[in-house]
Amino acid sequence: MSRAELADAICAWLWDTTEIKYELDGHYIAKLERGAVRWPGAAYRSGLRHVLDVAADNELGFFPPSGIAVAEPEPTPPSMVGHDDDLIHASDESIALLSFAEESNVGELTVEQLQADIERIAQSYLRTPTRPLFAKSRAIRDRAFALLAGNQSPRQSRDLYSAAGFAITMLAWMSVDLGRPDIAESHTRTAWACAEAADHDVLRGWIRATQHTAAFWQEDFVRAAAYAEDGLRYSAGTSRLFLASAASVDNARAGQPDKARDMLDLAQQLSVRQADSEPGGLLLCTPERAEGLWADTYLAFGQPEHTSNHADHSVALFEAAPYVLRNPGSERMARLQQAKARLLLGQLDGAIEAVEPVLDLPLEYRVRPLIHRLAEVAALTSPYAHTPKARMLRARIAEFIQLPARRKEDQT
């Protein structure tokens, strides 16, 4: 007799005996065989004893939990059931729903694969072309929500909401880099709902970091600071270091130097560790990434010497790190901080040397914030306009900035 046939025989006997329709199936029989369910309900045990012609539960390998004798009503003929007894009916209905409650459309490997895919995207960002990673993040988001429409345990649901939230957060960050920070904010609202459903502070912190970034590149520094400061309430992971550092830049650019210095002091005193659930790469703040932000704060203060010191240290830390662990986007931004500090300090050759690795970037890595920062470098070359080196630098920056725009026009 197959598992399905055994289940059908038990359900038929239970119907004849109780006039209650049970939903026992072959999947549940398989769980009994492998010991996943060690003490099925009274109705199922009675049906198994009858169909398999055994006298006692222990002959089937069933024993009450912790060895305690459990008194449960056995299925009885309809004349004795008492159909007006709602307690008995409710109990039998719960037994019938047991197999559904124990089933899940999400296995441990499914969640593990979603998390691995998120980590791979976060760590590959700005190391491989952006648009394919955008498409992969979108696919993870859709996969997570499709699974959430099925049946799983509360813990598995939280894991799926977490995966969806991280995927949407990356979609938002990429939207900023692709030139649409306004669209990014729409993504973050849904990501926040996922973080709430998952009750995930690490995710909350990085969503606030992304919202800061979207507001920052719309030059709404007050709102950017509000997002960053609110994110500090969620102290898990390295997002706290990013948020305090970013808030110092936001407040400095918003004309709030005292708050900017408070945030800078906080960031420089923090000792943080990567959380287990942080994907890394894009969604990880290392000391070198933070120091690049500190350089930007000092630039807003009008202190190019401090800008140069922090940018130099940031770049040195990036160069000392293993290639696979370097955040290329943040490293490029730190090099442009170097270039701006050099220009303000009268060091044209040093600025050219700092910006050279950025100008060699392939087209697919020329994201909008990087282009914006390069335009700022070009503006600072004005005092050197009479020199051939400065004119050549401006020409190369102009070509770097214009090429993506020309390519976009060609594709439309």
TrEMBL record:
Official protein name in the record: XRE family transcriptional regulator
Species this chain originates from: Kribbella jiaozuonensis
Source taxon at top rank: Bacteria
